[in-house]
Specification:
- This protein is of the alpha+beta class.
- It has two domains: 3-135, Roll (Pnp Oxidase, Chain A); 152-294, nmb1532 protein domain like (Four Helix Bundle (Hemerythrin (Met), subunit A)).
- The chain is built from eight helices and seven strands, in the order H-E-E-E-E-H-E-E-H-H-E-H-H-H-H.
- A seven-stranded antiparallel β-sheet has the order 2-1-5-6-7-4-3, sandwiched between helices.
- It is globular, with a radius of gyration of 22 Å.
- InterPro entries: F420H2_quin_Rdtase, Hemerythrin-like, Split_barrel_FMN-bd.
- Pfam families: F420H2_quin_red (PF04075), Hemerythrin (PF01814).
- Belongs to the F420H(2)-dependent quinone reductase family.
Length: 303
């Protein structure tokens, strides 16, 4: 382990052992732990970072102490936007969205006013320091609050509601992008290229959540259920086939969004609508088939 890695690990250990409080150079500062997933390795990496709050936003800056290259954690969150945040004793998942253009400049000004050292880091490099907003997903709005989870059927519905909500959010953002593009496009002018990082990050986060859910079902839930309900073999075969269809569309979306410069908007929108059609039909069929079987199984499992 390198000296830098050893130092980081000592800060992480102290942070977790003391409810988010650390000494040394970070004493008294606003510090969080950000866990990203390696863009190539798939291995989780945790990094201590200073943060700034402004107008309800939680922000970190890819300063890398003013070095000429972005830090590794920034490259990781561009590939896999779902991250884990630890502040004090609180730990939760978030979606990492770098700010762009005028919004980035405005937020960076607030960052520098709160922590002037970032201004010095920016002066020491020609690259634009990324300002990353760590968005905590809002709980699903429902009459009386979120539905209680008492059975595996409840848990499956909770996951499906979240996936539907994530997908609809990306569709709404995409529609807003096209409306804004049309409003600013003059006669005879070509449409503006790209989609922007906000749509990109939210779509990749949806794809990340969807892949995790379907892989978990294929590896764990489906085999266990099929063993107890062999008469539903054809239904499970259909569900697995639908998983493969959805996975192909997911790969198309991820491929279109691989470059930070942005996907072709028309192709992206077409694939997104194909995803909405296929996934909605799949979730409806899965609920129709599996919820009656899962309704009597307690969650969490009884020891």
């Amino acid at each position: 382990m390198s000296h830098a890695s050893s130092f980081h690990q000592s800060v992480i250990d102290e942070f977790r052992a003391n409810g988010g409080k650390v000494g040394g150079p970070f004493e008294g500062g606003d510090l969080l732990l950000l866990t990203t997933t390696g863009a190539r390795s798939g291995v989780e990496r945790t990094t201590p970072l200073g943060y700034v709050r402004h107008d309800g936003l939680l922000m970190v800056v890819g300063s890398n102490l003013g070095a000429p290259r972005h830090p590794d954690w920034y490259h990781n969150l561009l590939a896999r936007p779902v991250v884990r945040v630890e502040i004090g004793t609180e730990r939760y998942e978030a979606i990492a969205v770098p700010a762009e253009g005028e919004r980035r400049d405005r937020l960076f000004a607030h960052v520098v006013s709160a922590a002037p050292g970032y201004g010095a880091y920016q002066e020491n490099t020609t690259r634009v320091l990324p300002v990353v907003v760590l968005e905590r997903p809002e709980p699903e709005a429902a009459a009386g609050g979120p539905a209680p989870v008492r059975t595996l059927a409840d848990k499956l519905l909770e996951v499906h509601v979240r996936l539907r909500s994530q997908l609809q959010h990306v569709r709404d953002e995409t529609d807003a992008h096209f409306a804004a593009r049309a409003a600013h496009q003059g006669p005879g002018e070509p449409p503006a290229p790209g989609l922007g990082l906000q749509i990109r990050q939210h779509c990749l986060a949806f794809c990340q959540s969807l892949e995790f859910h379907h892989v978990s079902e294929d590896r764990h839930m489906f085999p266990a259920m099929e063993a107890h309900h062999p008469h539903l073999r054809d239904a499970f075969a259909r569900l697995r086939d639908e998983h493969r269809t959805v996975a192909r569309i997911q790969q198309e979306l991820s491929g279109l969004l691989a470059g930070v410069a942005g996907a072709d908007p028309e192709r992206f929108r077409a694939e997104l609508e194909r995803m909405a059609k296929e996934l909605t039909a799949h979730l409806d069929y899965e609920e129709e088939t599996l919820l009656p079987l899962l309704a009597g199984i307690p969650f969490p499992p009884v020891a």
